[in-house]
């Protein structure tokens, strides 16, 4: 016997966002974000708003292509979704696989992401 588990609306939003990122579906990505979304990757400068998130991700995708993520754990404290994962990319300059351990903390307002912090060291993308 299997037990059906229904995903929370906030987890559904985050999964929609991550799926759209794989496809570079900018319309769907932006639809998951509030107009004043805060986005920060590692120690980079934060960006604000869906258009700036798209610019940041577009720049990243000019350097590397996302392949897949090994999700280790998903937590859902009040108003948040936290993903601990190993993200796998391919660096476009030399076709080399690059992996990062990272944790994404996404805070939601209603059914949209209002704050998205990615704790990761992306320096291997730029290493020779």
From TrEMBL:
SUPFAM superfamilies reported for this sequence: NTF2-like (SSF54427)
Domain SnoaL-like positions: 14-116
InterPro entries found in the cross-reference section: NTF2-like_dom_sf, SnoaL-like
Protein name: Nuclear transport factor 2 family protein
